[in-house]
Design goal:
By secondary structure, the protein is of the alpha/beta class. The chain has ten helices and eleven strands. 40% of the residues lie in helices and 17% in strands.
Amino acid sequence: MEILDGKVVSQAVKDSVKEKAAQLKEAGNKTPHLAAVLVGVDGASETYVASKVKNCEEVGFKSTLIRLDANIEESVLIETIEKLNADEDVDGILVQLPLPKQINEAKIIGLIDPAKDVDGFHPVSIGKMVQGLPTFIPATPYGIMMMLEHYNIETKGKHAVIIGRSNIVGRPISILLNRNSYPGNCTVTVCHSHTPNLKEICLQADIIVAALGKPGFLTADMVKENAVVVDVGITRVADSTKKSGFAIKGDVDFAGVAPKCSYITPVPGGVGLMTIAALLMNTYNATLIKSTH
């Protein structure tokens, strides 16, 4: 069993991005600039956004964090996005999800300029991804693909089972693993809360991507020998032994499943770190496209 180490792969991606951004600057182009919008105070979102800002600094990007109150009118957020769309210096716009109830998430995502959609959630980005055209790929699926590539995981002809069908992970990763390229060429089965015989389907899988947000859901009896398991889950579970008062748990029962795997991602230290590395790569690409046009 080998660990798919997010620390190692994300560092390799960040080193590459840092070098590319420096070359862009040397050629007389601008420094990549990511603007993040955080509405309200959500513990997990705070952690993510703080990490994104810190990582921007590490690779020599500019970053702007815009904090808005949880009970703002939708119109305030719309105005904020319109300003960022119009700001020539901003290359990437990220609106941290989930948003408060009074705000229509789909509407907000649709307002982001597709040329600055570094989260890859805009309908234009998704449409291009489905058709295999160059575009921004949602950061978590993109990070998973970079990880599979880094470890030279064989995907061609393999049966990949995705547990979860969200627009953020499940649906896009199913499309990417199905594409006629590497990593890809998998036969893909997407499972969800209404899938009967889930265990039987998982037992046929060469690759399992668990992205349903239920801690410890995937157990050893659902995984065949030598499977590759990618755990996307990241749930805060109360733990009085921890200074923070909580532990981060994945969707996979790591202790039980790991001995059966050829490769497995840990939580924390796996996919989460890759999400940020992919976001930085998308932001660099947004700047590059702008610089070459």
